[in-house]
Amino acid sequence: MLQPVTGVYVDARLADDAIIRAQVIHLATGDDAVVARGLAAWLHGFDPRAPHEQERPLALECVAVPGRRTPDRRGLITHRDRLPDDDVTTIHGIAVTTIERTVLDTSRFLAPHMGLAVADAIAHAGLVDPVELLTRYDEWPPRQRWMARGKRCLDLCEPDTESYGESWTRLRIVDAGFPRPRPQIWVPEKRPGAYRLDMGWEELRKAIEYDGEADHTSQEAQDHDDARRDDLRNRYGWTVWPVRKGEVLGHDMAVERAVGELLGLEPQIRKRLW
Questions:
Q1: Which of 28, 127, 165, 168 qualifies as a FRET site for 244, CA 20 to 30 Å off?
Q2: Burial class (CB in 10 A: 0-12, 13-18, 19+), 246
Q3: 3-state DSSP call for residue 157?
Q4: How would CATH label the architecture of 165-263?
Q5: What Pfam families does the database record attribute to this sequence (predicted)?
Q6: Number of helical H runs and strand E runs in the chain
Q7: pLDDT tens readout for residues 166-225
Q8: Order of strands, edge to edge, in the sheet holding 195-201?
């Protein structure tokens, strides 16, 4: 048995399960707190963890219900924040922040690339409208922590984005001071059999594609990608530059240099911001 929170014991084999961890919060806090932030995102079906965090259990985070005692137990991360009744829902019998409130929180408090990835994914699923959601930050008092980060995240949110990797790549591009690319561009136009590019600049016929590990690592897949990009260049005049996870994540500015070469511009940063 393990005791993830003082006074609550769970089977060690189940201690990392997200639903079990949410139930731990419920048992430890009763009606005094609501599951929030990263764990709430997971309960709604969206993983808030970066690739290097995949083996880590989700943090036991909650928001104290205003007017009630603030839970204080070892292992529990309790936040104090405004929490209207409309921001609370129930999943598996556990009080959790709604999907809208969860996005407002993760956009502020997750690392920038994960905040955007989660926001993009939830918007892509049709569960939130980032434009409408952005106005909700006005409900908070002035000078709240990470509010500017949250607003920027939702301003950059693109519901057409189809993967976390595309979100990370787009943020790298924007953070480096390059023009914001448009996601999911059809070439020559949207129709059966047409090409669709992850992101790019239509007026320049330049594009960036994120080649994920799952679909682009075999030699057959790479040959197909090369043939596709050759056809885009030869038939339609599009230059497409592929990037991989190892180039997008980490400290080396490979993506920024590639985009700069593609656009004929210099990155406006000397080192990465995340």
A1: 127
A2: exposed
A3: coil
A4: 3-Layer(aba) Sandwich (3.40)
A5: AbiEi_1
A6: 11, 11
A7: 999 999 999 999 999 999 999 999 999 899 999 999 999 999 999 986 665 667 777 788
A8: 182-187, 195-201, 206-211, 239-244
Strand ranges for 58-131 from DSSP E: 61-64, 77-79, 88-91, 94-97
For the record, the structure tokens of 144 come out as: 């709240």
Q: Which residue has the tokens 């952005």?
A: 134
The contacts of residue 267 (CB under 8 Å, 6+ apart) are 176, 177, 178, 253, 256, 257, 259, 260
* Residue in the structure block whose two tokens are 């897949």: 221
Coil vs helix vs strand at 186: strand
User: Exposed (0-12), middle (13-18) or buried (19+): which is 17, by Cβ within 10 Å?
Assistant: middle
Residue with tokens 């787009």: 170
Give the amino acid at 178: F
For 5-31, the pLDDT digits (tens) are 777 888 788 777 888 998 988 888 888
End-to-end CA distance of the chain: 37
Alpha-carbon distance of 44 to 102, in angstroms, equals 9
Bridge partners for 209 per DSSP: 242
**Where do we find the tokens 């639903």?**
19
* Rounded distance between C-alpha atoms, residue 129 and residue 252, angstroms: 34
Tens digits of per-residue pLDDT, 212-271?
Answer: 866 656 677 777 888 999 999 999 999 999 999 999 999 999 999 999 999 999 999 999
Does position 126 have pLDDT exceeding 60, yes or no? yes
Total-model pTM: 0.92
Cite the residue boundaries of each domain of the chain with CATH code 3.40.960: 165-263
The two tokens of residue 65 are 């219900």
